[in-house]
Amino acid sequence: MNQILEQISICIQKGKVDSKMAYPPEMKGMPGADELTKAALDEGFSANDILSGALIHGMGIVGDLFREKRLFVPQVLMSAMAMKAAMVHLKPFFSSGELKQKGTFIIGTVAGDLHDIGKNLTAMMIEGAGWRVIDLGTDVKTERFLEVLNENGNAVVGLSALLTTTMEQMERSVKAIREHFPENRIVVGGAPVNSEFAKRIGASLYAPNPQVAVEYINSI
Ligand code: B12
Question: Any alpha helices (H) in the chain, and if so which ranges?
């Protein structure tokens, strides 16, 4: 891999946002994802080289380490910040159409549920894997999922629930989505959810962590 792309990938893996940020201590004072992405564009790397060769590469490693419990939530959140800093420089290439995303992933925490840490991690990992993410936030009513699906025909939908009580709401939302959009894939997650439940309510997949969801949607 080219040196600057490798450096960006390492910044994503380590959560190094920019030179001003003291985290991680061993990279203090060094350029971060922000400066290096800008430098890579100035050197003539295409937005696509940077996205797939550095950002998706780095986030893939973060996802694997998180799944293997060798990285923890705070470290993944730092990686997310580094990725966001890099993405600022790539955003214009998405709007111009030069950079293509793999598809659209609509995500939300179901109605009645305000937990969003796991949902945010999932959204960020999926964005880091090269997907356009529409994050509907928390307490998302079934109608809202349907409305946004209507505007984004082929989208994959992800629902999160952290409460045993809101699992019932997840069931209602999944059944309504199945009824109106039988072809669309639905991925569910959250601590109380499991494969049996996912199967029973008609979801396409239960993902215990974001990486499982990334591998699944990339394989579609
Ligand atoms: C933080 C927290 C809160 C915070 C939420 C802050 C926030 N912005 O999210 C606050 C304080 C607001 C809160 C409130 C409540 N909470 Co709370 N909360 C937690 C806590 C401690 C951590 C949850 C968390 O973020 N985990 C870390 C993330 C990374 O894990 P995760 O969400 O499971 O996500 C991972 C996977 O599940 C997966 N994933 C998650 N979603 C999705 C979606 C998709 C599509 C995919 C692919 C994957 C995926 O990916 C993530 C990364 O691997 C848990 C206890 C625990 N240890 O889990 C209780 C817990 C979930 N809360 C609980 C309760 C009861 C409540 C309250 C009802 C308390 C009260 N009496 O007011 C309220 C409910 C408010 C509401 N209406 O939602 C209970 C639920 C019990 C139950 N079985 O129903 C728990 C289990 C605590 C307990 N042991 O009693 N809570």
Answer: 3-14, 33-42, 47-50, 56-67, 73-96, 117-128, 142-151, 164-180, 195-201, 210-219
